[in-house]
Amino acid sequence: MALASNPKALRFIAPKPPGRNFSMNISVSCLPHSKSNLREYEKREKEASLPVEVKLSSPRKDIDFSDPNWKGKFQDDWDKRFRLPHITDILDIKPKPSPFSLKKSRTVPEDLNGDALDTWNGYVNNDDRALLKVIKYASPTSAGAEAECFGPDCSWIEQWVHRAGPRKEIYYEPKEVKAAIVTCGGLCPGLNDVIRQIVFTLDIYGVKNIVGIRFGYRGFFEKGLDEVPLSRKVVENINLAGGSFLGVSRGGGNISEIVDSIQARRIDMLFILGGNGTHAGAQAVHEECRRRKLKVSIIGVPKTIDNDILLMDRTFGFDTAVEEALRAINSAYIEARSAYHGIGLVKLMGRSSGFIAMHASLSSGQIDVCLIPEVPFKVDGPNGLLEHLERLIQDKGFAMICIAEGAGQELLQKSNATDASGNPVLSDSGVFIQQKIKRHFKEIGVPADLKYIDPTYMVRACRANASDAILCTVLGQNAVHGAFAGFSGITSGVCNTHYVYLPIPEVISAPRTVDPNSRMWHRTLTSTGQPDFI
Ligand SMILES: Nc1ncnc2c1ncn2[C@@H]1O[C@H](COP(=O)(O)OP(=O)(O)OP(=O)(O)O)[C@@H](O)[C@H]1O
Ligand SMILES: O=P(O)(O)OC[C@H]1O[C@](O)(CO)[C@@H](O)[C@@H]1O
Ligand SMILES: [Mg+2]
Question: Where is the active site (predicted)?
Fold first, then answer.
């Protein structure tokens, strides 16, 4: 990303294209302590101040708005895109009545022609839908409209998604089902809550054979990683601790090998908890199962503290991560307020999406400057970060900065280093800014007492908070309902406060990022009072 030369134009360029499928991480690696790194930074900052065009991403580029029927065509296409893949697409299987009922007195008929002794109106109909977008923008220049409304007239179009929950008819015989759960990627608060609810719900359906696959996809192919038998008793208390009861890992994952293993283990339902990389793997596993005509349901549960999955209100773990981040911000604030010319600097996770930094800044109310990957900023010179810090020190005696790990990466040296999953390894933006500030105040001869806090893994290696625990509970339960309903290649999410199922490709076609023209980012700027640093 780069900055526009004219500050009034408020021109941003689009986020950088994905470094690989399903990832938008910016590939950067440099030694933040080295002088050459600082020189590289200075060179890049100069380059970054060249004018660039507005190019906020819009998913509507492929629509021909001159066609009078463009809305109808869009909706037909939408229905196709959001249709949930079902095992009957490839296999001729007849459904049977669901044993899932919360009425103890109800008897389940043997087949769909029989009548239950007592009816239960607790099922979700396959034609139930939830509305994804609820704002009608009057103008494309309204805040947030650019990313949401359609065409030159900024039309609103109904975008319905499938409601999640138990179905009256199921496609698996619970007594014969073997269900498996796997947790992949990095840790996230709430993994154990989801595992626990999946087991509880399977148990209510009558499934006895439930196993955990250890250490992510690795558990499918690495010798010595035996399945963990799971039951209501085994998982009873696992939500009291953070982490994953089953272990997590990055990397690995030959899809064919994983599906061989699914077949060899006779798994009928696989619940895959993870972020965008994990879901890319889940989709590939689902497609390979279809190619082999296997009766297997692959169900994702989106997990990421970064909140970078498309279409969802939020992913589980995010709220807890923000809450934990507040502790670090509060400590930095206490240090900064108590020092002569104190500067508190907190770096928070968020590789390509600044949601944690934005929400933590907004909720703490203690931050003067929030820096995120989606919004470019200048450090030196007129209107730069350092100049603003000087002003804050002068006016109120101290300053507070919250920076996301992916922020300002375009100013640093790039490398091709990646982690085991192929995610680019980022440079330490926090240490870099820390050094810039220290050097600057030394150079201008103004004392400044900078305290840098990087809580790193502390924001995610913890137990889910109350709101995440509820989200995990619902997502876990719905994942099981989705599998029994015969869906596969779907994920369980919350959209516009309603719980839904979404086809996996739709949620990972790009990473979700903070829209610099959204009301939420504007609210953050209103709260911090920071200028635009351009
Ligand atoms: N495109 C892909 N196709 C198949 N498997 C993938 C793909 N991308 C990632 N994976 C696998 O998914 C697993 C998790 O991926 P990754 O490490 O990127 O974490 P993630 O799911 O994105 O979660 P996090 O939010 O913690 O980054 C890894 O085992 C990785 O090998
Ligand atoms: O050290 P690890 O496990 O690779 O995780 C770090 C990454 O995981 C995340 O928490 C989630 O993707 C990122 O914010 C962060 O960059
Ligand atoms: Mg990821």
Answer: 306
Give the separation between CA 259 and CA 65, rounded to whole angstroms.
43
Catalytic residue among 268, 306, 368, 468: 306
Q: Kindly indicate whether the ipTM for this predicted assembly is greater than 0.95, answering yes or no.
A: yes
Rounded distance between C-alpha atoms, residue 475 and residue 493, angstroms: 6
Question: d(Cα 40, Cα 19) in Å, to the nearest integer?
Answer: 21
- Average confidence (pLDDT) over 156-166: 96
Encode pLDDT of 369-405 as tens digits: 999 999 999 999 999 999 999 999 999 999 999 999 9
Please report the atom of ligand 1 found closest to the CA of residue 419: 17
**Can you tell me which atom of ligand 2 is nearest the CA of 304?**
11
pTM for the model stands at: 0.89
Q: What's the CA angle centered on 101, arms 97 and 102, to 5 degrees? A: 175
Ligand nearest to the Cα of 409, by number: 2
How many Cβ atoms are within 10 Å of 40's Cβ, its own excluded?
Answer: 16
Buried b (16+ CB within 10 A) or exposed e, 94-129: ebbbbbbbeeeeeeeeeeeeeebeeeeeebbeeeeb
CA distances in angstroms from 332 to 346, 396, 527, listed in the order given? 7, 16, 18
Cβ count within 10 A of residue 190: 34
